[in-house]
Design goal:
heterodimer; A: mainly alpha; 19 helices; 0% strand; B: 115 residues; alpha+beta; Alpha-Beta Plaits; four-stranded antiparallel β-sheet; 28% helix
Chain lengths: 413, 115
């Protein structure tokens, strides 16, 4: 008998189950609920070996619910209180809570909990990746290039803050929604960027992070009250980028620069979805950073070949973006575009204005850019010395390989 | 043909704190192995065991509750397969998914009692 389970079922189901069970038992029981869900997966890996249940999702949810009740009962201190609570809660909700749209509703509530202001920004992303996206602390540590211990601390602080501040499992009030949504979008975009900018050597984690960011945005877009030009633009932006995800590395998992990517391999359906979303984004009055970034991504996609790229237009979008929200990364990108346009002096002026420390783990991009500047200046010795700096600064094996190969090319010039 | 029991020791998923994705990945490997043995018609049965245990021992039938051993010594399950000899079972056990987690397969021939 051929046995097959949908890819990522467990990971996706983790977030769903945690959200449903929190709806049942309340956010104050989050720790117990997470334990119960974890126990359920272990049970499934053992029990399903010989026979997969007919409806795996329903099996998981039912077992997790019973396990939560068991765990809560065994917490002696909670006992008296829980016996009363459990029956009222369960009887009030009936089974509606397991309907698809209610599950989505619960997951959306969870997103807003993760972005609650009483959690610190760094805790928010760790918490979201854990409770909504179902990554464990080790995977989050690998994805964010942070020590696992640190992630564990952040997760535990986040949960404590939720319980201590008695955060409710509901949507923010109407006057708070937009502000909270801004943070939600930041978290989603951060997640996407962690995936897209390949700070991780395994392709799998990168794809998973990008996929999660897109999935959550889609979930938000389903609800009219959360729709905005910003959200549509963010969605478009991620679709455009994601369409290139597979061509960013070759079959031997080496980085392929934009210049050398096989443009016929870009995933057209995603580009189309991105275009539709971009059109919707333009129906709103407010223009956000996501609009400009999507416009830049679209410009790259429009170019049939690298040589056909309209760098002037891209430079224009970057300047608009910089005016709206000055950032070191935008400056760096403007320097790169100026190099493409052979505006060498402008490029150098911008590079010299950049504070490298602000680039954090992406400082190697700065040195890489300076190396290309010297290549254009035909000063190969300096170019190589900057490449060496870049190589020292990157912690990602893929990027290191890429830079080392570039160095070999330069040495042969 | 003889019957052999493959006993799986260690690699307690609970203790190892695997993520949902890793657990699903493990499960897929167990499915694959299970399917392969079924296709070959050599699989005669098997089960996973719940880690909680009780022991009854001594003339007084003293009952003790586990855990008795550490996770790495815990029997987590077994399969019974039919094969020519133990060497063939060693080959079958090559597909056991949890060696990388410190798991062990013990192979024991099931004794046949002469009539």
């Amino acid at each position: 008998m051929e046995q097959k389970i949908v890819d990522h079922l467990f990971r996706h189901q983790y977030g769903k189950m945690v959200a449903i069970l929190i709806r049942f038992f309340g956010l104050s029981n989050i720790e117990t609920i997470e334990d119960a869900v974890q126990d359920t997966f272990i049970k499934a890996t053992l029990q399903w070996r010989s026979q997969i249940p007919e409806n795996p999702e329903a099996w998981l949810t039912k077992v997790a619910k019973n396990r939560t009740i068991d765990l809560l009962r065994s917490l002696k201190a909670e006992k008296n209180r829980f016996d009363k609570v459990a029956y009222t809660v369960v009887s009030n909700h009936t089974n509606d809570i397991f309907l698809d749209h209610e599950i989505e509703d619960s997951q959306l509530r969870m997103i807003f909990v993760a972005c609650h202001p009483s959690l610190k920004p760094k805790e928010q992303i760790a918490f979201a990746l854990k409770t909504i996206s179902g990554f464990n602390s080790k995977e989050i540590a690998a994805a964010l290039l942070i020590k696992e211990e640190t992630i564990k601390k952040r997760l535990s602080r986040a949960k404590k803050a939720i319980v201590k501040n008695k955060i409710k499992f509901e949507f923010p009030s109407a006057n708070e929604v937009q502000q909270r949504l801004d943070r939600v979008m930041e978290i989603i975009y951060l997640t996407f960027n962690e995936g897209f900018h390949s700070t991780n050597k395994t392709k799998l984690i990168r794809k998973d992070l990008c996929g999660e960011a897109i999935r959550l945005t889609k979930l938000l877009l389903k609800k009219e009250k959360f729709r905005s030009g910003n959200l549509y633009a963010l969605f478009a932006l991620m679709c455009f980028h994601a369409s290139r995800l597979d061509s960013k590395t070759n079959s031997s998992n080496e980085i392929v620069s934009l210049e050398h990517q096989d443009r016929s391999k870009w995933f057209f359906p995603l580009i189309k979805i991105g275009n539709n979303s971009m059109n919707k984004a333009m129906e709103y009055d407010v223009i956000s950073i996501y609009h400009y970034e999507a416009a830049i991504a679209a410009e790259h996609i429009k170019a049939k070949t690298f040589e056909n790229t309209d760098w002037n237009k891209i430079l224009y979008w970057y300047s608009e973006l910089y005016q709206l929200q000055p950032s070191t990364f935008t400056q760096l990108n403007m320097a790169i575009v100026n190099l493409q346009l052979n505006h060498l002096e402008v490029a150098q002026r911008i590079l010299d204005q950049i504070s490298i420390a602000k680039l954090e783990q992406r400082a190697y991009l700065y040195y890489g850019c300076y190396a290309e500047y010297y290549v254009k200046k035909k000063d190969i010795v300096l170019a190589i010395s900057y490449l060496n700096k870049a190589i020292l600064k990157t912690h990602n094996d893929l990027e290191k390989d890429y830079l080392i190969k570039r160095k070999v090319v330069l040495k042969s010039l | 043909m003889k019957d052999f029991m493959m006993i799986f020791i260690g690699a307690d998923y609970q203790e190892l704190g695997l993520s949902p994705e890793q657990l699903q990945d493990r499960m897929g490997k167990w499915f694959g192995w299970n399917d392969k043995m079924e296709a070959q018609g050599i699989l005669k049965g098997g089960n996973a065991l719940v880690p909680v245990a009780k022991r009854v021992s001594g003339p007084d039938r003293t009952i003790t509750d586990g855990p008795f051993v550490e996770g790495k010594e815990l029997v987590g399950g077994y399969y019974i397969v039919s094969a020519e000899n133990a060497e063939v079972v060693v080959k079958i056990a090559d597909d056991y998914p949890d060696y990388d987690l410190g798991g062990t397969v013990e192979i024991r021939e099931i004794m046949v009692f002469d009539q």
